[in-house]
Amino acid sequence: MEGAENCTVGGKSVAFIGARIWCPVCNSEGFVAWVGPHRKATMNGKQQALDGDECVCKCSPPPICIASQNFAWHSFEAGELAAASSNGKAPGSEFARGLYDEQFALLDQDGEATRGIHYRILAGSQILASGTTDMQGRTQRIKTSDAQGLRLEISR
């Protein structure tokens, strides 16, 4: 699992929402998706992943992530969870609002940047950005006010 290199616990990088993750069941790369309540806890602008978040990969239903650490957690009062549920939001959704800033880097099998690749980035069916990768194989940065699952589509 991808993690924040400058933030480790017990020698392991702290995982974040949107981090790349390898699924050994379907043998594909996926990403960590937010499930359930989270308090705002960011490292370098990325929301901390928690036990119970999902691995969005080719599996259906998606596998559940299991934390490797158990000394820290997010807790909620019953009233907070009830208020979040009654207003139609997922529990905890208003607790972790903030700026999310993502960018993809496309690399070939040797780890070299793939420049000039046409792409588009979507959230659901909405196209958030489209263009061509730069000299370092990077897309435009995508900034959102909430955690979102992003999909990258590429064509040559």
Secondary-structure-derived class? mainly beta
User: In which order are the strands of the major sheet placed?
Assistant: 3-4-7
**Tell me, what's the shape?**
globular
Estimate what percentage of residues fall within beta strands. 25-35%
Order of helices and strands: EEEEEEEHEEEEE
Oligomer: single chain
**C-alpha Rg, in Å?**
17 Å
The tally of beta strands, per DSSP, is 12
Secondary structure: helix percent:
under 10%
Protein name: PAAR motif-containing protein
Pfam families: PAAR_motif (PF05488)
InterPro entries: PAAR_motif
Question: How would you describe the overall organization of this protein?
Answer:
The protein contains one helix and twelve strands. Mean pLDDT is 79; it is low at 87-98. Strand 3 and strand 4 (28-33) form a beta hairpin. It has one helix at residues 78-86, and strands spanning 4-9, 12-14, 20-23, 28-33, 42-43, 46-47, 54-56, 100-102, 118-123, 126-132, 142-144, 151-155. The strands form five sheets. Strands 3-4-7 form a three-stranded antiparallel β-sheet, with no helix packed on it. It has 156 residues and is mostly beta strands.
